[in-house]
Automatic annotation (TrEMBL):
InterPro entries: Apiosidase-like_cat_dom, Collagen-bd_put, GH. Gene3D superfamilies: Glycosidases. This is DUF4038 domain-containing protein. It holds the Pfam family Apiosidase. PANTHER family: ENDOGLUCANASE, LMO1036 PROTEIN. It comes from Niastella caeni.
């Protein structure tokens, strides 16, 4: 099995061109991300739209060796991902793939640092040097690294104090503040009320020492960072975790009982002031059991991750993060600590169909005017629908879009659109292709912007037959 892995990695390295001392790649001109002027979206340093298309590679730093990390990053670049969400420390006792321990005495205030940074000399290549290598390799590929300093369960277990957190944050800021492709994710799958003093200390210190990088809080499932930290100066954007439960599994006390309706979190954050970007940073992962803990349960598929993406983005989200069961834990052959009924390995799971389909929503959003886009359910005539029948509408200056997960008919109030007429087409979330819609009145794809027009999506009405109705005004 390990021979097979090596062959796979060697082929990918030959095709993608692994960065080595003999084969360096020039650093791309990345700069830290910014929040757009209207407070709703991200943009590059030169003001261009940036649609956050993330992947959860939570254990990338600790599980993968250099050549494996390159294989993963090359694949994610090819599939259009531009952010990888990663844990810096999964636990205070974490050891990476080279056997390097991150901390002395499991204390976040005392990272183990060796002199030099020589990958060919084990005594000069430590846990933090390996993180540096991956961060820089990501930058070379135009990918940002969203780093969780310490996972929430370790903090909840009392393994980190506020004083230690400040010292640790000072170390992280000093090491990475000059690296252009960093975003900070405070927290780590936890409520803000669990050790709030510590999360504020960590966030405040990171922001003071490294004000040039954006930061948010990665919350527990079925919650959002805005519940606790919306008005904190260190939190420049919101992130919610819609979670991995289906409608009838969403029963935990204290959670926001939105079920699979992740668009409701977007709407909740969108209404808050001051205005800040928001998005689903952890929806249901492809190939993970519904509800997480019962491996015999049905597993979330490509159609589900598409639905979460379009629902949350059309409701006003600034991006979306995809996840896969095997990839997020970088599962490998002979691992004995696999979670959530994982049945395959990371290098196989990177090719799951949903992963390849995520780039289509990024391409669609960036294909038209970006910063003027708003959610607008008033475009929909009649009932928007409940649960899987829900229609979600968004529009910009010269376009409107409506998403249907089931391929149900969509009735649009055409007089809500600018101009005298619109060209209509169906956008396929599975392959990113457009199909023109012909009008019976005009005989072509042009529809008059008057009254109510009903559009019949291709195929039969069923879950997973999802489409985007696109209306462009000249």
């Amino acid at each position: 099995m390990f021979k097979v892995i090596s062959l796979v990695l060697m082929a990918a390295m030959a095709a993608g061109g692994v960065r080595t001392a003999d084969n360096p790649r020039p650093m791309q001109a990345l700069k830290p991300l910014k929040v757009s002027a209207n407070g709703r979206y991200f943009m590059t340093a030169d003001g261009k739209p940036f649609f956050w298309l993330g992947d959860t590679g939570w254990l990338l730093f600790s599980r993968l060796k250099r050549e494996e990390a390159i294989t993963y990053l090359d694949d994610r670049k090819q599939k259009g991902f531009n952010v990888i969400q990663v844990m810096v420390l999964h636990t205070t006792k974490v050891v990476n793939a080279y056997g390097d321990t991150a901390l002395k005495n499991s204390n976040v205030a005392t990272p183990i640092i060796t002199p030099g940074n020589n990958a060919d000399n084990a005594s000069q290549y430590d846990y933090w040097d390996h993180i540096d290598f991956i961060v820089k390799a990501a930058a070379e590929r135009g990918i940002y690294i969203a780093m969780v300093p310490i996972w929430g369960s370790e903090v909840k277990a009392g393994k980190v104090s506020p004083v230690q957190a400040k010292q640790y944050a000072t170390f992280l800021a000093g090491r990475y503040k000059t690296q252009p492709n960093i975003v900070w994710l405070n927290g780590g799958d936890i409520r803000g009320t669990d050790s709030m003093t510590l999360w504020k200390a960590l966030g405040t210190t990171l922001h003071e020492k490294d004000p040039g990088h954006l930061m948010t809080f990665h919350p527990r499932g079925r919650t959002t960072s805005s519940i606790w930290f919306h008005n904190e100066t260190w939190l420049q954007f919101n992130m919610f975790q819609s979670g991995h439960r289906r409608y009838n599994q969403d029963t935990s006390a204290g959670d926001l009982h939105y079920g699979e309706d992740n668009w409701k979190y977007t709407e909740m954050d969108y209404r808050k002031t001051p205005v800040k970007p928001t998005f689903d940073g952890e929806p249901s992962y492809e190939e993970i059991p519904q509800g997480l803990h019962d491996s015999l349960e049905k597993r979330w598929g490509a159609d589900d991750v598409r639905r979460y993406a379009y629902w949350s983005v059309f409701a006003g989200g600034c991006g979306y993060t995809y996840g896969n069961n095997a990839v997020m834990q970088m599962h490998r052959p002979n691992d004995t600590d696999g979670n959530y009924g994982v049945t395959n390995n990371w290098y196989e799971a990177i090719n799951a169909p949903g992963a390849a389909q995520m780039q289509h929503i990024k391409n669609l959003m960036l294909s038209r005017s970006y910063f003027d886009r708003v959610p607008d359910q008033s475009l929909i005539a009649g009932e928007a629908g409940e649960q899987y029948d829900r229609l979600i509408a968004t529009r910009g200056k010269n376009y409107a879009m409506v998403y249907t997960y089931t391929g149900r008919n969509i009735s649009v109030k055409m007089d809500k659109l600018a101009g005298k007429s619109s060209k209509a087409s169906w956008y396929n979330p599975r392959d990113g292709k457009y199909t023109a819609i012909n009008s019976r009145v005009t005989g072509n794809g042009t529809f008059t912007n008057k009254g109510v027009q009903e559009f019949d999506a291709p195929g039969e009405v069923k879950e997973g037959n999802d489409w985007v109705l696109v209306l462009d005004t000249p």
